[in-house]
From TrEMBL:
SUPFAM superfamilies the UniProt entry points to: Acyl-CoA dehydrogenase C-terminal domain-like, Acyl-CoA dehydrogenase NM domain-like
Superkingdom per UniProt: Bacteria
Classification of source organism: Bacteria, Pseudomonadati, Pseudomonadota, Alphaproteobacteria, Rhodobacterales
Protein name: Acyl-CoA dehydrogenase family protein
Organism whose genome encodes this protein: Loktanella gaetbuli
All copies of domain Acyl-CoA dehydrogenase/oxidase C-terminal, residue ranges: 230-378
Family assignment from sequence similarity: Belongs to the acyl-CoA dehydrogenase family.
Sorted UniProt keywords: FAD, Flavoprotein, Oxidoreductase
Length: 388
């Protein structure tokens, strides 16, 4: 770990604990209970002042290593508002990574630079309604189409669970052509992309919801295709393996903070003649939290090291996504249990983190899909060892 990365992480942690955390009580919320644009704008003014805006991207545009990024993003996740304030939140963080790896210089100037500066937010249009037979965990089922028309491509289809779509200025749209899957960059809002539903969901830390949209005759200039025609699924993997890991980083930070809150509560609250921490039923839960938190950190570092060695790390990221999401669910659940009635109220962030960790076990691949993928790999390895 470089000294500069350690210093950045320390600066982010101080900012999130001292400046961002008080905003958790800010009453400015929309009708989905998400922070409003005013809150985000205020936080980002403060982040720039503290020099922690997009802290995982160096001044020359290069990224910190994945191992260094872990240290920084864990610190940003110490508050549910921290990733928004520091511009390390999904989907922007993953889209920044993808554009940095695949985008042309022109596309970087037009779309990446505003994302890094924190002056624009983005959405990634991949999942589709199951009622249409569309893609979810199985991207090969994609129904949205794109067809060339002169120097444009025309896109038609429906997408769902598009995080942040209602308030994004930049979109990455996936569609299938004769050559295979393609990715396009578009300015938002766009009259050809219409939001038809924004459900209320179990999570509410990110603005813009998880929208269902209809795309009708969306004309995109050919030079706004990301990479080459037919390479969309390959580019999706460039994005998804690190994105699974950065989700783990942010939520680890949130659960570290929850465990701190629960530990403080257990050491202050008395029942049956002694502090809660002195009751084994409570003390052991907090001890198990330490074990799960440490194991989560080790899994994150292990996969980050693989990515830093230039490996695809699909297997590692799947294992880490499953192990960390489920470990952190246990941590958040124990924190609620330790705190009793206080744990299910809005007195602290524990209740919110508990809800949102549940959603984390689904997005970027449910645990069952990752286990299925790992099982297929086990079978392939066995068949290869048998000379099959």
């Amino acid at each position: 770990m470089t000294e500069s990365a350690t210093e950045i992480a320390a600066r982010v942690e101080a900012f999130v604990r001292d400046i961002v955390a008080p905003f958790e009580k800010d009453p400015r919320r929309d009708d989905h209970n998400c922070p409003t644009e005013d809150v985000i704008a205020d936080l980002r003014v403060l982040a720039r002042k503290a020099d922690v805006m997009t802290p995982h991207i160096r001044a020359d545009g290069s990224h910190l290593t994945h191992r260094e990024t872990a240290q920084v993003l864990i610190a940003s996740g110490l508050s549910p508002l921290g990733p928004l304030a520091c511009n390390t939140a999904a989907p922007d963080e993953g889209n920044i990574y993808l554009l940095g790896k695949v985008g042309s210089e022109d596309l970087k100037r037009r779309f990446l630079d505003p994302l890094v500066a924190g002056t624009a937010r983005s959405a990634f249009f991949m999942s589709e309604p199951w009622e249409d037979g569309g893609s979810g965990s199985d991207p090969s089922m994609m129904q949205t189409t794109c067809k060339p028309d002169g120097n444009h491509w025309v896109v038609n289809g429906r997408k769902c669970w598009i995080t942040g779509a209602a308030q994004a200025q930049i979109g990455i749209v996936m569609a299938k052509a004769e050559q295979g899957a393609c990715m396009f960059l578009v300015d938002l809002p766009n009259p050809a992309i219409r939001i038809v539903h924004q459900p209320k969901t179990i999570d509410n830390s990110l603005p813009g919801g998880h929208c269902t949209v209809e795309i009708e005759n969306l004309r995109i200039p050919a030079d706004q295709m990301l990479g080459e025609p037919g390479e969309g699924f390959k580019y999706a993997q460039v994005r998804l393996a690190p994105a699974r890991l950065t989700h783990c980083m942010r939520w680890l930070g949130a659960c570290i903070r929850c465990n701190e809150i629960a530990t403080d509560y257990a050491n202050r609250r008395q029942a049956f003649g002694k502090h809660l921490i002195d009751h084994e039923g409570v003390g052991f839960m907090l001890a198990d939290n330490l074990i799960d938190l440490q194991q989560a950190r080790l899994m994150i570092d292990w996969t980050a090291d693989a990515l830093d060695r230039g490996e695809r790390a699909g297997r590692e990221s799947s294992m880490t996504k499953v192990a960390v999401s489920e470990a952190l669910m246990r941590v958040a659940d124990r924190c609620v249990q330790v705190m009793g009635g206080t744990g299910v109220s809005d007195a602290t962030i524990v209740e919110q983190v508990f809800r949102e960790i549940r959603a984390f076990r689904i997005y970027d691949g449910p645990s069952e899909v990752h286990r299925w993928s790992l099982a297929k790999g086990i079978k392939r390895h066995w068949e290869k060892s048998q000379g099959a």
